[in-house]
Amino acid sequence: MGNFLFELKEGLLISLRAIRANKIRSILTTLGIVIGIAAVVLMSTAVTGIDQSFQKGVSSLGSDNLYIDKWAWFNNDIPWWQMRNRRNLNMEEYERFKDLVKLPVAVAPSIWTNQTIKKGETSIEFMMVTGTTNEYLRTTNLNFNQGRFFNEIESKGARSVVVLGSEINKQLFPFGSAVGEEIELKGNKFKVVGVLEEQGSFVMGSFNPDNQVFVPIDAVFKFFQNESFRSITINVRAPNSQLVEDVKQEAIGAMRQVRGLKYYEADDFSINQQEGLLSEINKTIGVIQIAGFVITGLSLFVGAIGIMNIMFVSVKERTKEIGIRKAIGAKRRTILSQFLAESAIICLIGGVMGFFVAFLGTRIIEQYDFPVSLQYDAVVLAFVVSLLTGLISGFAPAYSAAKMDPVEALRYE
Amino acid sequence: MNLISIEHIAKIYDVGSEEVHALRDVSLTIEKNEYVAIMGPSGSGKSTLMNILGCLDTPSKGSYIFNGISVGDMDDNDLAKIRNKEIGFVFQTFNLLPRSDALHNVELPLIYAGMNSYERKERAREALAKVGLSDRVTHKPNELSGGQRQRVAIARALVTSPSIILADEPTGNLDTKTGEDIMALFSELHSTGNTIILVTHEEYIAEHAARIIRIRDGMIERDEYVEKRIIPSSNNHSLQ
Q1: For a 10 Å CB count at each end of chain B, is N or C smaller?
Q2: Which of B51, B57, B80 has its CB closest to that of A329?
């Protein structure tokens, strides 16, 4: 064992000498590994980042929330045409439901519509407007940057008041405070009463509260569309996650009562939960992960082939040197470890540089609000992957060097 | 006891359909502190004999006893060990590692012998001093003259205190004057107790040895002691 460590150390020193002696070639070879490792590390940070962002986005929905809807969001057991034929949920049903349930902390209706928002010369098209009541705030984890949510009076009175998501606020009011200002929604003036704190969840898209505005639900019916036109969603907030199941059972019972369903009739509504979304997201992330690692793995593979190629060239070119070393007593194992160490070192240097490139890359990508998360395990990943790459791609060339016949190697010119 | 004892060895190479008999039937013994020259024209089999004597190659037939150990059936690793500890090679083309300095070239066999860094540097410096190159320790081969390179190679051969020094045409790439200096060095090494086997095709070089073995067509043609040995005048890089 001591002898092995000694040979390893000497092998490392010898290979460092060889690498220094062939600087340009080593640098070019390393470049392939640098790119490969940078790609793998960047990919892993991006996947981690996307994952975290999804989780954050989902948790901004609240893990204790239920959404009673005409449609099942993720459930594919019920055929879509059956769901299409269900009755729309309306405000009257909401009111009755709300009176029936006892367990929830809060119950709020919501409806979504896409509208154009205008402030002076700035306008945003197809922006999501959520219509809801003052109760809505208590079904979410939203916080305020400025102002407040609309109150019960404004809500019941269908007043023209609006709460802005942080991103919308940034675009419409880049310089000053928004609260008290007026904006236009489909030509109707609305007064801004509050601005939400930034949620920063990348993946929720237009469902991200940052990219929405909130108005009283009756204002939606009054200004944008007929109440009977679309189905609303009822947001139900359980007191805590342990009680979610109880709240769900109570909600099902209450909804069946509201709908007047007979015992043999199936539910004509769906209770949606964050869990459905989570499992859906995990599936998607799994696919992204596999695709990402296959693609970046390919670039690393190309780098590894480069190493193998250059190691074969190096062995061939140093045939005479190998002959000399063998003549003066180098064993097969010594030659093998010398060349293995050489390719491992090249790859490790490439790994360190690749990690550094990935580190700079994440810094740059962060500037563009794409979620990345460089974790400590990425260091381990880069180290292990580059070491393995070096050992695997270096083995065949090193083995060919080790089994050379010293007489023929010495004769090589 | 004989240092080297080979009996009826043959070396046969398969070259495609034909067999080439590089050595047909060679037997010889060499004792400690002998100075032997092996001579022969090219193609005579003297290189093959040298490779076998130097444990770089194994004979196809026959037995080779080196220092009481049978070498003929050893595996690669054991042969490497013997080469490392018992044999010092000196080649016609010097065969130094071009990118390493003299010190590293000389300490290389000690690295393979597993000696620690301090001790082997010490011994490498001593060996370089023996061949008169104390002031060239950090020079790389391309910064040295041909004679100096061969001295580094000799220092490398000496550094492990081997049982024999095997020199293959050591003056072949050197001018006459430098060649003589190198031959003087060998004579001095011999006089201090080293066993030297010299492979050459030059009569004049061979006559520095005490005994000449002539090879032709894979057989020993003659094996005789030199009547009028050339004893070179000691040069200015003499042994201390």
Answers
A1: C
A2: B80
What CATH code would you report for B33-60+76-225?
A: 3.40.50.300
Q: Look up residue B146 and give its two tokens.
A: 């041909």
Burial of A264 (0-12, 13-18, 19+ CB in 10 A): exposed
- Asked whether B192 and B184 are in contact (CB, 8 A), the reply is no
Query: Which residues are CB-contacts of A407 (< 8 A; sequence separation ≥ 6)?
Result: A323, B51, B56, B57
Q: How far is B233 from chain A (nearest CA, A)?
A: 31
Q: Which helix (H) or strand (E) holds A26?
A: helix A23-61
Cβ-Cβ contacts under 8 Å, B99 against chain A: 17-18, 21
- H or E segment to which residue A278 belongs: helix A274-317
Q: Is A237 on the interface with B (CB under 8 A)?
A: no
Higher pLDDT, A140 or B25: B25
Tell me the three state secondary structure of residue B108: helix
- Residue in this structure with the two tokens 């500890």, named with its chain if needed: B85
Count how many Cα atoms sit within 13 Å of the Cα of residue A242 in the half-sphere of its side chain. 0
Q: Which residue of A has its CA nearest to B85?
A: A329
What pLDDT digit, counting tens, does each position of B73-127 carry? 788 899 999 999 999 999 999 999 888 899 999 999 999 898 888 999 999 999 9
Residues B106/B154, Cβ–Cβ less than 8 Å: no
Contact at CB, B81 and A6, closer than 8 angstroms? no
* Per-residue pLDDT tens over the stretch A369-382: 777 777 778 888 88
Instruction: List helix spans (H) across chain B.
Output: 46-53, 76-86, 102-113, 117-130, 146-158, 176-191, 203-206
**DSSP three-state, residue A258:** helix
Of A345, A362, A284, nearest to A39 by C-alpha is A362
Q: How many CB pairs under 8 A join A and B?
A: 62
The dihedrals phi and psi of A145, each to the nearest 5 degrees, come to -85, -50
Residues of B in contact with A406 (CB under 8 A): 56-57
**Cα–Cα dist A407/A125, whole Å:** 80
- Residue A391 token pair: 């050992």
